[in-house]
Write a structure and sequence with these properties.
233 residues; alpha/beta; 9 helices; 8 strands; 16% strand; globular; binds pyridoxal-5'-phosphate
Amino acid sequence: MTAWERLEEWRERLEEACASAGREPGSVRLMGACKKVPPERLREFVEAGLTLLGENRVQEARVKVPVLSGGVEWHFIGGLQRNKVKEAVRLFDCIHSIDGVELGEEVSKRAVEAGRVVRVMVEVNVAGEASKHGVPPDVVEPLALALNGMPSLEVVGLMSVPPAVEDPEKARPYFARLRECKKVVESNTGLVLPELSMGMTHDFRQAVAEGATIVRIGTGLFGAREGHGAADA
Ligand SMILES: *Cc1c(COP(=O)(O)O)cnc(C)c1O
Protein backbone atom coordinates (compact mmCIF):
# COMPACT_ATOMS: atom_id res chain seq x y z
CA MET A 1 0.00 0.00 0.00
CA THR A 2 1.27 3.49 -0.77
CA ALA A 3 1.60 6.12 1.91
CA TRP A 4 -1.33 7.93 0.36
CA GLU A 5 -3.53 4.81 0.57
CA ARG A 6 -2.48 4.16 4.14
CA LEU A 7 -3.36 7.69 5.15
CA GLU A 8 -6.66 7.55 3.35
CA GLU A 9 -7.46 4.29 5.12
CA TRP A 10 -6.70 5.83 8.52
CA ARG A 11 -8.76 8.92 7.78
CA GLU A 12 -11.69 6.63 7.05
CA ARG A 13 -11.08 4.57 10.19
CA LEU A 14 -11.05 7.70 12.31
CA GLU A 15 -14.19 9.03 10.66
CA GLU A 16 -15.96 5.75 11.35
CA ALA A 17 -14.74 5.69 14.94
CA CYS A 18 -15.99 9.27 15.41
CA ALA A 19 -19.32 8.45 13.82
CA SER A 20 -19.92 5.44 16.02
CA ALA A 21 -18.97 7.48 19.09
CA GLY A 22 -21.34 10.27 18.04
CA ARG A 23 -18.44 12.68 17.69
CA GLU A 24 -17.69 15.26 15.02
CA PRO A 25 -15.53 13.91 12.23
CA GLY A 26 -12.31 15.85 12.49
CA SER A 27 -12.43 16.07 16.28
CA VAL A 28 -9.59 13.56 16.45
CA ARG A 29 -6.16 14.22 15.00
CA LEU A 30 -4.03 11.48 13.51
CA MET A 31 -0.47 11.48 14.75
CA GLY A 32 2.13 9.35 13.00
CA ALA A 33 4.15 7.80 15.85
CA CYS A 34 7.33 7.48 13.83
CA LYS A 35 10.02 5.96 16.05
CA LYS A 36 12.42 3.89 13.96
CA VAL A 37 10.84 5.05 10.70
CA PRO A 38 13.56 6.48 8.44
CA PRO A 39 13.15 10.04 7.12
CA GLU A 40 12.82 8.91 3.46
CA ARG A 41 9.83 6.78 4.35
CA LEU A 42 8.34 9.52 6.50
CA ARG A 43 8.65 11.99 3.68
CA GLU A 44 6.21 9.93 1.61
CA PHE A 45 3.60 10.32 4.35
CA VAL A 46 4.23 14.01 4.77
CA GLU A 47 3.91 14.54 1.03
CA ALA A 48 0.67 12.55 1.13
CA GLY A 49 -0.69 14.97 3.74
CA LEU A 50 0.31 13.77 7.22
CA THR A 51 0.83 16.90 9.31
CA LEU A 52 1.41 15.63 12.84
CA LEU A 53 4.38 13.48 13.82
CA GLY A 54 5.35 12.09 17.21
CA GLU A 55 8.84 10.95 18.13
CA ASN A 56 10.10 9.11 21.22
CA ARG A 57 13.75 9.88 21.05
CA VAL A 58 15.49 13.22 20.84
CA GLN A 59 18.41 11.57 19.01
CA GLU A 60 16.12 10.41 16.20
CA ALA A 61 14.32 13.73 16.03
CA ARG A 62 17.62 15.53 15.64
CA VAL A 63 17.94 13.87 12.23
CA LYS A 64 14.29 13.88 11.16
CA VAL A 65 12.96 17.25 12.21
CA PRO A 66 15.32 19.42 10.14
CA VAL A 67 14.57 17.52 6.92
CA LEU A 68 10.82 17.26 7.55
CA SER A 69 9.69 20.50 9.06
CA GLY A 70 7.65 22.31 6.43
CA GLY A 71 3.97 22.08 7.34
CA VAL A 72 4.62 19.41 9.97
CA GLU A 73 3.98 19.70 13.68
CA TRP A 74 6.36 17.63 15.81
CA HIS A 75 5.36 16.32 19.23
CA PHE A 76 7.59 14.52 21.71
CA ILE A 77 5.95 11.38 23.11
CA GLY A 78 8.77 9.43 24.79
CA GLY A 79 10.37 9.57 28.21
CA LEU A 80 12.30 12.84 28.47
CA GLN A 81 15.64 13.00 30.23
CA ARG A 82 16.59 16.27 31.82
CA ASN A 83 19.79 16.58 29.82
CA LYS A 84 17.79 16.37 26.57
CA VAL A 85 15.29 19.08 27.44
CA LYS A 86 17.16 21.95 25.84
CA GLU A 87 17.29 20.18 22.52
CA ALA A 88 13.72 18.89 22.82
CA VAL A 89 12.48 22.45 23.28
CA ARG A 90 14.25 23.43 20.09
CA LEU A 91 12.82 20.50 18.10
CA PHE A 92 9.26 20.03 19.33
CA ASP A 93 6.07 22.11 19.40
CA CYS A 94 4.50 20.03 22.12
CA ILE A 95 5.78 17.60 24.78
CA HIS A 96 3.29 14.93 25.87
CA SER A 97 5.35 13.34 28.60
CA ILE A 98 5.72 15.73 31.51
CA ASP A 99 5.68 13.64 34.66
CA GLY A 100 7.03 15.88 37.37
CA VAL A 101 7.44 19.47 38.54
CA GLU A 102 11.21 19.40 38.05
CA LEU A 103 10.94 18.30 34.45
CA GLY A 104 8.34 21.02 33.90
CA GLU A 105 10.66 23.61 35.42
CA GLU A 106 13.48 22.55 33.15
CA VAL A 107 11.25 22.76 30.06
CA SER A 108 10.01 26.17 31.19
CA LYS A 109 13.54 27.43 31.78
CA ARG A 110 14.71 26.26 28.36
CA ALA A 111 11.60 27.61 26.65
CA VAL A 112 12.19 31.02 28.23
CA GLU A 113 15.81 30.93 27.03
CA ALA A 114 14.68 29.98 23.53
CA GLY A 115 12.07 32.73 23.55
CA ARG A 116 9.21 30.42 22.74
CA VAL A 117 6.10 28.92 24.26
CA VAL A 118 6.06 25.13 24.51
CA ARG A 119 2.80 23.24 24.83
CA VAL A 120 2.93 20.42 27.35
CA MET A 121 0.76 17.54 28.52
CA VAL A 122 0.84 15.64 31.76
CA GLU A 123 1.58 11.97 31.28
CA VAL A 124 -0.68 9.91 33.50
CA ASN A 125 0.06 6.38 34.65
CA VAL A 126 -3.57 5.30 34.69
CA ALA A 127 -2.97 1.72 35.78
CA GLY A 128 -0.25 2.40 38.34
CA GLU A 129 2.26 0.23 36.50
CA ALA A 130 5.70 0.28 38.08
CA SER A 131 7.42 0.07 34.70
CA LYS A 132 5.67 3.08 33.19
CA HIS A 133 6.33 6.77 33.08
CA GLY A 134 3.65 9.14 34.22
CA VAL A 135 2.12 10.37 37.43
CA PRO A 136 -0.74 8.74 39.33
CA PRO A 137 -4.16 10.31 38.62
CA ASP A 138 -4.31 12.02 42.02
CA VAL A 139 -1.10 13.95 41.28
CA VAL A 140 -2.33 15.37 37.98
CA GLU A 141 -4.14 18.31 39.55
CA PRO A 142 -1.24 19.79 41.53
CA LEU A 143 1.15 19.13 38.66
CA ALA A 144 -1.11 20.77 36.07
CA LEU A 145 -1.50 23.80 38.36
CA ALA A 146 2.24 24.05 38.90
CA LEU A 147 2.93 23.83 35.16
CA ASN A 148 0.28 26.42 34.47
CA GLY A 149 2.17 28.84 36.70
CA MET A 150 5.49 28.40 34.88
CA PRO A 151 6.58 30.90 32.23
CA SER A 152 6.57 29.92 28.56
CA LEU A 153 4.57 26.75 29.16
CA GLU A 154 1.03 26.12 28.05
CA VAL A 155 -0.62 23.08 29.62
CA VAL A 156 -2.92 21.66 26.97
CA GLY A 157 -3.98 18.23 28.14
CA LEU A 158 -3.28 14.73 29.38
CA MET A 159 -1.55 11.77 27.78
CA SER A 160 -1.44 8.10 28.64
CA VAL A 161 0.00 4.80 27.48
CA PRO A 162 -2.19 2.22 29.21
CA PRO A 163 -1.12 -1.41 29.73
CA ALA A 164 -0.80 -3.50 26.58
CA VAL A 165 -3.80 -5.84 26.48
CA GLU A 166 -4.79 -8.44 23.92
CA ASP A 167 -8.42 -7.35 23.75
CA PRO A 168 -8.65 -3.61 23.03
CA GLU A 169 -11.97 -3.42 24.88
CA LYS A 170 -9.95 -4.08 28.03
CA ALA A 171 -8.05 -0.84 27.42
CA ARG A 172 -11.24 1.15 27.40
CA PRO A 173 -11.57 1.61 31.18
CA TYR A 174 -8.09 3.15 31.22
CA PHE A 175 -9.07 5.66 28.56
CA ALA A 176 -12.23 6.40 30.51
CA ARG A 177 -10.08 7.00 33.58
CA LEU A 178 -7.96 9.56 31.71
CA ARG A 179 -11.07 11.33 30.44
CA GLU A 180 -12.52 11.40 33.96
CA CYS A 181 -9.24 12.69 35.36
CA LYS A 182 -9.28 15.57 32.86
CA LYS A 183 -12.87 16.42 33.78
CA VAL A 184 -12.17 16.47 37.50
CA VAL A 185 -9.01 18.56 37.15
CA GLU A 186 -10.79 21.03 34.88
CA SER A 187 -13.69 21.48 37.22
CA ASN A 188 -11.50 21.75 40.34
CA THR A 189 -8.99 24.18 38.87
CA GLY A 190 -10.75 26.09 36.10
CA LEU A 191 -7.93 25.10 33.74
CA VAL A 192 -8.97 24.17 30.21
CA LEU A 193 -7.26 21.00 29.01
CA PRO A 194 -8.51 20.43 25.48
CA GLU A 195 -6.27 17.52 24.54
CA LEU A 196 -6.49 13.83 25.40
CA SER A 197 -3.58 12.02 23.77
CA MET A 198 -4.51 8.35 23.92
CA GLY A 199 -4.99 5.34 21.67
CA MET A 200 -2.59 3.51 19.38
CA THR A 201 -2.94 1.16 16.40
CA HIS A 202 -4.51 -1.62 18.41
CA ASP A 203 -6.96 0.36 20.52
CA PHE A 204 -7.67 3.69 18.78
CA ARG A 205 -11.41 2.92 18.43
CA GLN A 206 -11.81 2.53 22.17
CA ALA A 207 -9.75 5.68 22.76
CA VAL A 208 -11.90 7.68 20.33
CA ALA A 209 -15.04 6.36 22.01
CA GLU A 210 -13.69 7.69 25.31
CA GLY A 211 -12.78 11.12 23.98
CA ALA A 212 -9.27 11.00 22.49
CA THR A 213 -8.34 14.15 20.55
CA ILE A 214 -5.00 12.79 19.32
CA VAL A 215 -4.41 9.13 18.48
CA ARG A 216 -0.80 8.05 18.11
CA ILE A 217 -0.53 5.52 15.29
CA GLY A 218 2.75 3.72 14.59
CA THR A 219 2.63 0.20 13.13
CA GLY A 220 -0.79 0.70 11.51
CA LEU A 221 0.58 3.53 9.39
CA PHE A 222 4.23 2.70 8.87
CA GLY A 223 4.29 -1.09 9.24
CA ALA A 224 5.93 -3.25 11.89
CA ARG A 225 9.01 -1.91 13.62
CA GLU A 226 12.08 -4.02 14.12
CA GLY A 227 11.62 -6.26 17.13
CA HIS A 228 7.81 -6.09 16.99
CA GLY A 229 5.30 -8.53 15.60
CA ALA A 230 2.92 -7.44 12.86
CA ALA A 231 0.30 -5.43 14.69
CA ASP A 232 -1.61 -3.96 11.81
CA ALA A 233 -5.18 -2.95 12.57
C1 LIG B 1 5.26 3.54 19.58
C2 LIG B 1 4.27 4.40 20.26
C3 LIG B 1 2.97 4.56 19.74
C4 LIG B 1 2.46 3.82 18.52
O1 LIG B 1 2.21 2.49 18.81
P1 LIG B 1 1.62 1.49 17.69
O2 LIG B 1 1.10 0.37 18.49
O3 LIG B 1 2.75 1.11 16.82
O4 LIG B 1 0.55 2.21 16.95
C5 LIG B 1 2.14 5.43 20.42
N1 LIG B 1 2.52 6.10 21.52
C6 LIG B 1 3.75 5.97 22.04
C7 LIG B 1 4.11 6.73 23.27
C8 LIG B 1 4.65 5.11 21.43
O5 LIG B 1 5.87 4.96 21.97
